[in-house]
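Why do we bother with a discrete structure alphabet at all? Because it lets us treat a fold like text: something you can write down, compare, and reason about line by line. To make this less abstract, here is a complete entry for Rhodanese domain-containing protein. Read it the way you would read a sentence in a foreign language you are learning: slowly, and without expecting to understand everything at once.
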Amino acid sequence: MAGSSSRDEEEAEYGVLLYYKFTSIPDLDNLFTFFDSNCRSLSLLGRVRLSPNGVNVTVGGKLSSLEKHIAAVSSNSLFDGTDFKLASCRRPANDKVAQECGFTSLSIRVVKELVTFSCHPLLKSPDVSNAGSHLSAAEFHSVIQHAGKFLEKEGPDDHKKLVLLDARNLYETRIGKFQPPNVETLDPEIRQYSDLQSWIDNNSEELRGNCVLMYCTGGIRCETASAYLRSKGDGFENVFQLFGGIQRYLEQFPDGGFFKGKNFVFDHRVSVGSSDANILGTCLLCSSPFDDYSSRSRCTYCRMLVLVCDSCRKKRSQYICELCQKNGKTVGSIPLIENNESQELFIPNEPEGVPTSDHAGFSPQLPWRNGKWVDEVLTRQSHGRPLELNHGNELGHSRMAKESVMRSQHIGTKPSRKLRILCLHGFRQNASSFKGRTASLAKKLKNCADLVFINAPHELPFIYQTGLRDPNSCPPSSVPPNPPPPSNNCSKKFAWFISPDFSCRSGTNWEIADCPFDPLQYMQQTDGFDVSLAYLKGVFSQAGPFDGILGFSQGAAMVALVCAQNRATKGQIDFRFAILCSGFAVELADYEKGSINCPSLHIFGNDQGNDRQISSQASRELASLFDDGCSVVIEHEFGHIIPTRSPYIDEIKDFLHRFL
């Protein structure tokens, strides 16, 4: 009995502390040292995120230690007015939930943004000084309760209404949300917070002219989201946010008030409820009442958390979230990439045009050291050599330095999730040959990315030169000048664009080329985009989602045109970044410099590289069409290849790590 009482007392002494503060940090290194020393001396575990614009902290430990931490932080005038949310709870076990939430170690990082609002990680964040007005829990409750009087106070307008906007992810809203009577509520149903910007853009007219009340878990996401909404100008002046978030509201209204269900939290507690025992969530498979995410069940496709009850989990191991279901995903409909291996996907040339789901990636957290941004996560004891982007454009306003060292108490390991990149081959190539040519690249990126290869939709005839070998056709040993090679010596070849006079002549018979190889032939291959675009929509539908898309030579030209039409293809071809290798422009004459707004990496041979296929000037002109604020250029001296030696491979990794 005495041992049991002692354990109970120990449990009662444990707690979790959450707080954030937007403020200008004059010396990040000193602040890092303070948090590192203070948290370790008090045996606090969890996450500390520091940026030039403030801090975001979630740590756990003994209540007495957390109170000492609050006192130490409060002594710094930078943290005047900070809302420290301290709650007692059980001590986390060293289990899957605690590990995934970061409560088995102390992780202190300096990041570019405290919360990443945009899926374009290189674009500027909203100015939080323009955030929506704070409402206390009591004020927020009163506004909902007396919506009519509040609207009259804000100004007479027959068309104005009160709108309650949830700034959280879909899986959070499925176990708890505000459900007030007679007030319109909006759930964006986003996978991740960085998708909210696009949702606001697409629904801004529905919000314009209304009083918008925004809420989230603890308040920090509303700071950025409300600032972005207000930045849209006329009609968006009346934006308010719940100060302290749902957590403070439930403290003020223990019975739940207008909030029904549980509040999802990003620590070992998983969720926090009110005295109301009603369950809002339901099992994804059997629809029985269920709201426990402790099993950490995830969607097979996008990896979003899903609710699966204990009984259903025993019957099935693969699940498809409701968002992926809406976009036509089914269990077993496509092969999945596993075991760190790149893979070819063979998709029919006329796939069904089922819209794909949105991407499901994680927005980056960029480390900091000595006043510079760092893109690679290493251990505190590790030392990497400096990397420099000296072959092309720097990152506009971001101006990322490439010093590969990060100070962190958390031990750096492989990313918990790898990027998935769809790869488009060049003219007169195929998935197998491109996979072989990029084997070194795939090997060096194996810890952060999986490469997926597909054939283009336009099948080309076998051609050969008499006396000259087409460098794009087959290996030298298989293409003697005379007679034509045996048909079984080469695989079929494909293209994304074809010439206007192309006639579909497929088969296994070789044909003599009409003329000698022309290094400028890519300029005549301008038709077939519509077929290729429809084909890619099917690929994304059947095999997506993909975080990025990589194109080589003509494949890069296809990627560029897809990027240029990203608004028109939204919901069907969604990706977070593009990599264009030895690219050139096709049908982009009407686009101005800097008009294509998509995070992009451009890799091509410089003037000394002697790329005999695509001129460096053509690749340079293509890169200039992309917004300089979110593009990176790498020029190398190796011609018509993707370089995999240093420093180029390091720069490629730097770019990709921003999306992990």
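What the structure line is telling us, in plain words: Confidence is low (pLDDT under 50) at residues 333-344, 346-415, 468-480. The two ends are 49 Å apart (CA to CA).
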